[in-house]
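Q: I have 418 residues here and want to know how they pack in 3D. Can you give me a structure?
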Amino acid sequence: MVELSQIDDALARFADAERRITANLVELDDHPTYTLLKASAPSGETGRRFGAALAAGGELWQLHSSLRETLDRVRELRETEGRMTAERRTQMADLLWGPSVLVAVGQTPLEQRDLLGASSFEQRCTLEQLLGRMRLLYEPLRDAVAHVDALWREMLPRAEAATSTLNRLEREAAQLGLVGDAQLSALRRHLDDVQRALADDPLSLGGPSAADGLDEMVRAAADRISALRHGHDALDSDLATTESTLAELRSLRASAAAAHSEATAKITGVSGLVRVPSPDAIDGLGGLADQLDAVRDSTASTPWQARRRQLDAWLETARRFRDQLSRAVTANQAPLARRDELRGLLTAYRAKAAMVGRAEDLALGDLADRAHNELYTSPTDLEVARDLVEEMGAALLARAAATSPRPASDPSRPWDPS
């Protein structure tokens, strides 16, 4: 015979489980994500992964009702007035530990019945088995709601932010005369796809990382519209600077040509000079100035985007031409700069000779005179001048070493015969 204390303990344990199950199921039913998932009946990847779990909500409540009804029957028997008979104890024990819970009723197919078989069947289980069955149904449902909720929490705010940004970008594009912009149209289609997936099949997005891809597309579109706005607003100011650009090109071309002419005249056998373009490259027919006039003449009739492209192409051509001229100036001035460097070195060697008392040295004087004549007479042979200056430097160094006093020996150090 089961003791009443055992019945009371089991009843208290199952009643506590029933209260906790009720609280969890009510909280699940009130969860906004679960409410939306039940209403939308998700398809695709979400339906394949979580469809069965989401469909279990109704069965959970049915099993919960069976649990409550069984416990109510036990409580009713326990609280009945009068002497506790063995029959009541047996009934309560059967309800608490026996297969007392009806979980399914159905028809047995004819092909599965024997001659004495019933046409219908009942499936029963114990309360412990019922709790296990409810747990198996609840946990996948809980995980599905948590998974989709986390994805929605990540994606929905960013999709809303992307929509707001895209709306502003489309208005900005319309103000700039960009009708049917391909990049904005692609972003709009992608955003529409994301919003449909969030409603119908959130798992098809692949997870929260999909928000990063959406953000990147929005940033790229925003950067492009910002660049277009800058190009539109800077068009007049960029046009205004083109005359100074032409003036700079003319000055560079003149400097390169002058350096080329001077190097050719004053340096013999010069190499590495850069041929300077004709002035017509700037001011001749079809030159840069002529091309700029064509850009300016199109201002009144051409859309700003076309004018911007024309001006940017002109500025790029001017930039490359300026780089070419700058390299020409540097290359053409290099021989004269080398001559001036040798002149400075010769002056320094003469000063050094005077400092060490070699101002009257005939050999050094002869080298200095020959180097001076080569460097200060046009045209200069740089190789000859360089050899003479280097020879004078070597000779000066040798004479200075020969006449410099030897340092006193250090008695603390051993004698070195070398």
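Q: Anything worth noting?
A: Residues 411-418 have pLDDT under 50 and may be disordered. The longest helix spans residues 304-355.
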